[in-house]
Amino acid sequence: MMHFNILLADDEDNLREIVAFNLRQQGYDVLTAKNGQEALDFFIKNKNHLHLALLDVSMPKMNGFEVCEKIKSIDKNFPVFFLTVRNERDDRIHGLKLGADDYLAKPFDLEELLLRVKRILKKYETDSTITINGRKIDFSSLTITLPDNTQHRMSAKEASLLQYLIAHKNIALSRQQILEAVWADKAEEGSYRTIDNFIVLFRKLFEDDSKNPKFFLSVRGVGYLLNLKNEN
Q1: Closest CA to 82 of 41, 108, 53, 110
Q2: Could you report the per-residue pLDDT of 115-150, keeping only the tens digit for each?
Q3: φ, ψ of residue 184 in degrees (nearest 5)
Q4: Burial level of 21, CB count in 10 A (0-12/13-18/19+)?
Q5: What domain count does the chain have?
Q6: Per-residue pLDDT tens digits for 160-210
Q7: CATH number at residue 137
């Protein structure tokens, strides 16, 4: 199961802590901010690890709409969810025009909030099984079944890297992006050479000719790209 990190920004201390507690109870990691500027700073610093921003609209230093606009200018696909006492039609429309994925007015039901968060985060989920070039990947059992029916047992890190590449298929990713996303735990060893070694392994497993890859591609001056344009 994929691990999710959420940025929660609200200047109401009690509400922020209650929401953070309930999100953590669901297994999410939560980074909290007490104003808009702090939220934006946290996003910029941690954007490669975050999956969702929960923003109050009426915050000091920078309101939620402004934070959303800044986030979307950095990553237009990053999901933003507004929590606010402002439930007027114009505010909702303005938030949605900025690219917000959802909008929930205070006071809200915590169970409804958690269900909406779960719905938004589904965009990141990788199917438990997927096939690349005739090789069947089963993330639930951490196995790759090859065309001759032999199986390769994946390590947890191999599976994490493969899931990240699949979630960002057909997009050129730098080694630094990959390192920060998959080796986020600073206590664990990770380097550009480590990533290169994993790609070599994936080419041996998935390519018909590992020296002339069609799926796990090198992008000069950038990093790697998982080409799945011709896969169903």
Answers
A1: 53
A2: 999 888 876 666 678 899 999 998 877 899 999 999
A3: -65, -30
A4: exposed
A5: 2
A6: 899 889 988 899 999 988 888 887 654 345 688 899 999 999 999 999 999
A7: 1.10.10.10
Return the CA Rg of the chain. 20
Q: Determine the residue type at 138.
A: D
Listed residue (85, 77, 54) closest to 67, CA to CA: 54
Single pTM value for the model: 0.59
Please report, for the domain that includes residue 28, its CATH number. 3.40.50.2300
